[in-house]
Amino acid sequence: MTTLTKVAQGQPAELSIYPKRKLSKINNNIYGGFTEHMGRCIYGGIYDPDNSNKDLIDEHGFRKDVIKEMKELNVPVVRYPGGNFCATYHWLDGVGPREKRPRRPELAWLGVESNQIGTDEFMKWCELVGTEPYLCLNMGTGTLDEALAWVEYCNSTLDTYYANMRRRNGREKPYGVKYWALGNEVYGPWQVEQNTKEDYAKKAYQWAKALKLLDPSLTLILCGEIGTSHWDHHVLKECLKVETHALGGSDTAALMDMHSIHQYTTSNDPIKNAFAPRSAERAIEVTASLIDLARIQNGVSPKVPRQMICFDEWNVWDPQRAVGEKGAEERYTLSDALAVAIWLNVFVRQSRYVGMANIAQSVNVISPLMTTKEGLVKQTTWWPLLLFSKYMRGWTIATHTSSPCYEGTTEPKWLQNAGETPWLDVSATVDDDGSVNLVVVNVNPDESFQLKLDGMEGDDRSVDAYTVTANSWNAVNTADKEEVSLEHQSHSKLKEYTFPKMSITMLRWRTG
């Protein structure tokens, strides 16, 4: 939580950090990834067996450089296989001998799916990366029987048909997949088998009962919309109900565990683009209130854990600039990097409510990480993602900023009426070893801010400073040039700091 005192332009800005005021525990899953059968995310992204540079490929056909960078991010969970793709995906097409797997028309992105990567291959990749899988069920052309069979295949220890199929396919031990989504964006007209909110709520509730009868350990995630819609209100009210039959009579467990929301931000104006993710903060707050309202209306016991928000698609994306059916390969600028940093600041500030977040996507498709036949390109947005994922863990702590504010129009337009928009966007954490991590995003295109730093007591304190910036909003990284990178400096006796214009800065120091 960051509180704000608005000051006039030209007045001195200040920043106070309170390391002892731990507000909420950060769930590491907010640094989750997402891989979808779309563009070059799977084929040519995580899996590239035909690449002529064999040094890049392991014995499974996976890109070793992608695995290395995913490990560097310490990605805790990865969503799969979609996205819109899952609405016509039948998981049985992707298991068993590869030479027998069918090629299918793919309707989400108008391609052909070879099914050379399926459940077992994705699980193997997750093991190599050191991450947990998060699977999205087909609630478009799929059936409840098919969903139950997939859970059985992945998780069952019994002597039953689909568990034995897994064993025949070479995997004796269950995968133990914890996270399962009840469909993806089924509210949208772009979705195969679009649902009304009434039809979806009824279907999701019945599916959830059956799934938890089969495996009570599952974490089930409702398909929400943007967090502020009639869809979210209705689905939460109808699905966050007291349910004991499917939970073995327990009054301390929940049928639904999380509620997903999606949002992408963009603007052709670099300042509006950078500030746009602040709209996600309001969406999280509204969704959290709708969850509370549903629990109150339905008489849910306080003993049932409060449902968290799963922000399982987020990023900067202009679908007209990076068309989905053409692979959605964005070239990100410094402005986009600042936007991603503000996205991540939002998740840290709202850690009380957010149980998972998944950047869409992890490789090639609107991604900070791009593959070439020779190696990798780390786009501008890679650097804030790396800083946050490595260091912004532990607890969200209180900060207070005195800052001038942006007074112009916003994208979305309603954002300018939803609260102040300070030029300095801030979050801070403290981890278990007492390291304090402060991120300040200065969106101002013309002015650097020299701030007094209250809360960094100790004359001899060593402070690491990491900075991401460039000379232009339009700076990009490509295979031929890297205009945006990470700079590191060490300081001592730091009482104030100058945050450059158009920059992301992380300060890191030990308490005590």
From TrEMBL:
Functional pathway: Glycan metabolism; L-arabinan degradation
The UniProt keyword set, sorted, is:
Carbohydrate metabolism, Glycosidase, Hydrolase
Q: What family is this protein classified in?
A: Belongs to the glycosyl hydrolase 51 family.
The species is: Saxophila tyrrhenica
Asked if the record carries the keyword Chloroplast, the reply is no
Q: Which reaction does it catalyse?
A: Hydrolysis of terminal non-reducing alpha-L-arabinofuranoside residues in alpha-L-arabinosides
One MF term in the entry's GO annotations: alpha-L-arabinofuranosidase activity
Name the InterPro entries for this protein: Alpha-L-AF_C (IPR010720), ASD1_cat (IPR055235), GH (IPR017853), Glyco_hydro_b (IPR013780)
Q: What is this protein called?
A: non-reducing end alpha-L-arabinofuranosidase
Task: Give its E.C. classification number.
Answer: 3.2.1.55
Q: What class of enzyme is it?
A: hydrolase
**SMART domains from the xrefs?**
Alpha-L-AF_C
Domain spans labelled Alpha-L-arabinofuranosidase C-terminal: 312-503
